[in-house]
Amino acid sequence: VTTPQPPRLAVSLLERWLPDNEPLAGDLLEASRERSAAWLWRQVLLAILGRVLVQGRTNPRPMVEATLVSLAMLALLGFHAVVASSLINHLLVLNDTTWAGVTGRYHDWQMPATMLSFLAAVLIGREIGRFHRDHRIAAVLAFLQRQRDGQCLRQSLPLHSEPASAAGSSRRGTANGCRHGVRHRAVRWNRIEEERCQDVPGDRVAMRTAAVVICSTLAAVALQTPDFTQVAAAQAPASTGGAADRQETFEVASIRRDFSGTQLGGGLAAPQPGGRFIALGATLRRLAGDAYGDLQLHQVTGGPPWADSDRFNINARAEGQRSPAEIRHMLRTLLADRFKFVAHTEMREMPVYMLTLARADRRLGSKLRPSDPKCAEEARNFFPGALGFPPPCGDFRLGARALTARGVSMDALARLLAGRAGRPGIDRTGLDGVYDLELEWSSDLGLEQAPRGSAGAGELSADGLSLFTALQEQLGLKLEPGRGSVGILVIDSAEPPTPD
Amino acid sequence: LTRDYLTDFELMILLAILRIGEEAYGVPIAREIETTGGRSVVLGAVYAALDRLEKNGLVASSIGDPTPERGGRAKRFFRVTPAGVKAVRQTRRALTRLWTGVAQVEGGRV
After folding, report:
1. How many Cβ atoms are within 10 Å of A144's Cβ, its own excluded?
2. What ipTM goes with this model?
3. How many distinct helices (H) and strands (E) make up chain B?
4. Strands A276-283 and A402-409
5. Digit-coded pLDDT (tens) for A442-456
């Protein structure tokens, strides 16, 4: 097998790692004309390995230095990835105050942020390596010293450098007169020879990149960046006294204690058409969950003891037609005014159920279909609580052995299903938009009864088709237990409501 | 660090250079070892050994002109120095003395 054109990457590696061995590179290219690409790759990789081993044996200090610097950079970049993802999350929260406390999207940004950080690391490393190939740490320290003194260092060739490598070093980075560097064993400052000379643009670039890395790290530490999410969430969705909240209030609101003795979960609470909000036998926890993004009960923690026991009927009305989101905003203001309600949101790691695609080819089940555009539009302004079958777009009908939904997002489906097990649900399907679905199962086995660990996934119960199996077969979805970051609303304080 | 005797790979390289003559550079040296010596070689290892031999004064090298089939890269020609020839002879004598009287390798039988 012949290779008229040798693999570019192999040639590039050769030039990058063996820049001072032109004859070897030429020999490999010449010989590769009669050989396979695999032969060339093997030769290139073995030549590079041999070079590294020889360098490590003859001059181990740079290798140890490079290893330590690499590990330090890895740790630093891991931290920067968290910083970047936190900042993105922070910006999104400023733009949309409703979602941050509801989903674990903060973690969705970590992978892109990590990739960007590594890209930045490659560029920084390239710059540093370009100008400080021989003595990276010592050279950076020397630049810091030079910056302080307004002087630059005169290059003194390494004690053990071969003539070829010294010439290569000179050719690569210091052709414009102001050479820099320190002797191999001269980390001590008194060995560094200094003289005034012209600035080198490359030196400044390396200096600035190092300064940016150091300053951004210090700034991140100073700002306690890992808490950005909490800071942002505390500022945005739970800011009960914000200007926007004060402007958005119900025109009329009645809050009365419910003494009917209902024990139905947290009660009923939902925005209604016509700018109305109705709550029947709702606990404070239920009301808080509804006010801050339709959270489930287990996503609301803290609060006074009566937050789960005292129940309230609320009948509130705003002027004109209002969207569910606007009504929820008004409910926040109402809670702040009448319950002296103060809360903040934060992200917490906890057991969750993740809704994922069951099939590797990402094919959906026959009973899961994208909704038509009209239904998707109706779902945007959907008010829960409407009766009838089939459900309106945006709503579910959940029975003992059947689930029907129209125009619902996968996020809503995940939260509905996982909510039955008392856990938050996280959508990991990657499916955007809204869907129609019909699901039937013959077992009474609910999520809350599913075997721990396996969550009953893919198992048939004794008397028929389990919900988990039905999910996979009919919708092409899978519900898996795991741990995830979930937005939690923490009630800081609340008081019994003031009378009407 | 100089040694009194050559390794088998160094010996093969020196002999290959001597067999090739004036046109001895990386590719023909490796080819000679592969075809005559019957072993596959890695060019990087050949150059590492040649650098070592040059450092010990057993070979000398010179840079030739760049050629298009090599991507414009120059060849590095090698020749064996008198010290190198002496080292080959010493190694040969040492090996011959070691072979002498070893019944298992005499007469072509193993």
Report:
1. 14
2. 0.86
3. 4, 2
4. unpaired
5. 765 444 444 444 444
